[in-house]
Each structure stands twice: as structure tokens, then as C-alpha cells.
Amino acid sequence: MAQSGRKTERLCINWERAFDLYLNAIACDNEVLWVQATSKLAKLSKHAPEDLLARTVPILVELLRRIPSTDLSPSIQEAAAQCLKSVACQGEGRLAVLIGESGAIPSILSLLTHSDGSLRRALLKCLRNIVTFAADNRVIVATHGGLQIILNLLNTCSDDLKRYLLEILSALALLREVRRTILISGGVGFLVESARCGSMVSRYRAAQAIGLLGLVKRARRTLVDSGIFSVLLELVQVGDTSTKLVAANALGVISSHVDYIRPLANAGAIPLYAELLQGTEPMGKEIAEDVFCILALVEENAVAIVEHLVRILRGDNVEAKAASADVLWDLAAYKHLPSVVRDSGAIPVLVQLLEDQNTDVREKVSGAIAQLSYNEADRAALTNSGAIPRLVDMLQDESEEMRDNAVEALVNFSEDPSLGDRISDVLNSPSFQNMQERLTQIRASDAHLASSLRHMSFEQLTVDPALI
């Protein structure tokens, strides 16, 4: 109760009067009083009105530039930095922008190169908040040589300050030019470390920057050598939803090169992406699907992936079943995996799901079956599992995509001398013939696109995109 009363008292402060008192304290020629008043302002900043805090910013920046009269004087620079740190957190980023526009950043950077102890700690905390709450400040830091200062300090600082430096680095690394400099200067290891420790917000930023850096072919080797797989996989496990997705996507970007497909799978990625496929986030499903299609370029990975997909298809998660069927649809087109899907026991499960109540599941399953029907051995397995009568029934489905998939599969069955007689009754159906003719036209127009999108190759994965 007493605590609640104290809080009410703070919130009922006459802020204009308090601001005048602060101005009077700063007007005195007494450094001890400056420090005391500024420290009190820092404590009250989370309750003070935004417009009042905005008026304090120029004063605090000026105090930051003051040099104490003696070595024994209390550090007004430290008090000003601590107060600016607190102010930067308020106003949903607006006050942080104001601090950057006030010229505080060059002063902070200059002080960092000559400070130590508690002053350096206060300056780093202040700079961390300034770049965290305002993206524009990151540009100011970078253009005033801040990145090199941070990298130099990382090479020499004590461990208790490293967290703040890494969190600053993760914010700066969202800038393209900073990432380029980090790569050239050998600072990639620090960026990886920033994804390993610190606040989750900072680790999220680092993972995002790493994903962008991973688009550059020559950066991937450095990232992998720096242990990026274990760092990002940990984030996929322990991060919040946004962090999981960013880390999973970054892993997918880095792994899209033949040299890193096996190491990522060996690091335990496949079960984690299977979990992502079963999650509630649509973006997570898309990322898992894309990464599975990359990892499956190695056959032993494909075997493990398909096992997970079949398990999911047998479960009750409707969205995950549709996503799993979609992956199988893609994998069925990989020419180096002629028997993996068939040997996994997926075909009977897929055929059974042609009667699933969910339209999306049936559409994706019918697409996978249509793709499988291009292979002779798979056609036999599909026939033995009862696919043909179910596909015939789908010719009357309301979904155009399902009808097209059914026709595509049945056309492949009809062209198989050993199976054609099983669908002879359907071949003369006007609806079947119309759809068959339309399918032929679609096949002709999409042939080139299908070849470029579905039949992936190692050569495609080694392209070096521009740094973005």
C-alpha cells in the first residue's frame, strides 16, 4: 500500500516546477549539484511527460560535452549518459531520434575512445538504447566511425562490457554498409557472438543481419566456420516466435549451397524444421518447406525428411498435413529421389488423404499424387493403394485444382500399358477429354517454368547474389 502511495506521489509531481528546479540546479556553478539533479531526473524519466523530457535533451547533451574540473569531481558526463539512456527508452522512439539529432552521438563516440570504468559502461548503455530505439541513429553512428570504435573495443574490452558492445553491433549490422565492413574487416565472428548472447531483441537483430549477410557466397564460409549453425539452431529452439522464424530463415539462406547442406542436417536441423512445419505460424511453414526442399538435395537427408512428413500426415494437424503434402509434391519431382517417397510408406497415406475433409489437404495431396504418377514404380504403388477410383471420383470435385491434378494423374495412368485398361471407362467421358485437352495446353506453357523451379541443382545453389 505504501508502495502504491509513493507511485501516486511520483505521478502527481508538478513537472513544470520540477523542470524549473532542474534548470536552476544546472545554472549553479556546482558540479556535485549537477550530478545529483541529473541522476534524479534519470530516475523520474519513466514517469515524466514526453514534452518535458524533450526539453531536457539539449541540456543533457551539453552536460555530456563538459569536462569535469578535477579528477576528483563527480562525473557529470556519466550522469548525463545515464539520463540520456533512460530518456531514449521513452516516447516510442521519438526521444531517441531527438537525441540523435541533437548531436549526442559524436560526443558519445569521442568519449568512448578515452573512457574506462563506470563512465564507459554508462556511455555504452546509452549508445545501445539510442541505436535500439531509433534506426536513424544507426546511420549516424556508422557515418561517424562508430562501427570501427565498437569493433576495436570488442577486441580489447572486459567481458562485463562485451554484452553492450554486441547489442550495439547487432543494431548497426542491419545496415548494408555495416555488414559489408564487418565482412571485410573480419568482424563476422562478433556478429555471430551477438546472436548467441544478449537480449532476445538483440539476438533477433543479429539473426536478421546474418541472414542478409548469408546471401553473399563468400560470407557463408566465414559464418559456418564461426559456428553459426549451432547458434541459429539454438534460437530456433529457445527464441520467441519472431526470433524462431528469422533464425530459421537465416539458416535456410546459409544452407543454400552444396557445401553446407550436410553440415546443417548433421547439426540437428531436420527435426526442428519439422516442428516449425507443425507450428501455428504460416510463415514458419513456408520457411520449413523451402529449407526441406534444399536439404533434400542430399538423399540421406531426404529419407529423414520424408519420415517426418509421413508422421505428420498421419496426425491431426490439418495445416501441417497440407504443408507436408506440399513438400512431398516438390520432392516427388526430384530425379535423384526415385524411391525415397515410395519406400517411406507415404503413398498409402496420401491415397487415404484424398478423402480428407479439408480441401487444402486434398488439393496438396492430389498434387503430390499427380507428380508421383510420372514414375512407373510409383504408379504401381498408387494403383495397389486404391488411388484410381478415388482420382476418378475427384473429376467431379468443386475444386478446379483437384480436378486438374486428378486428370494429370489419370492421363499418366492411361499412358501406362499395364494400367490403361483400369481407367478405360473414364477415357471417353467428355468432361475428362475437355480437362485432358486443357491440361495438355497448361503442360506446354508451363514446361520451362516447371523445369526451372522444381528440378533444383547444385549449380543453382552456388550462385552469389548481391549483398542486400
Automatic annotation (TrEMBL):
**SUPFAM superfamilies linked to this entry:** ARM repeat
Alphabetically sorted, this entry's keywords are: Repeat
- InterPro entries tied to this protein: ARM-like, ARM-type_fold, Armadillo, HEAT_type_2
**Signal peptide region:** none
ARM repeat feature ranges? 103-145, 345-387, 386-414
The HEAT repeat boundaries are 346-384, 387-415
Q: Could you tell me what this protein is called?
A: Armadillo repeat-containing protein 4
Which species does this protein come from?
Answer: Nicotiana tabacum (Common tobacco)
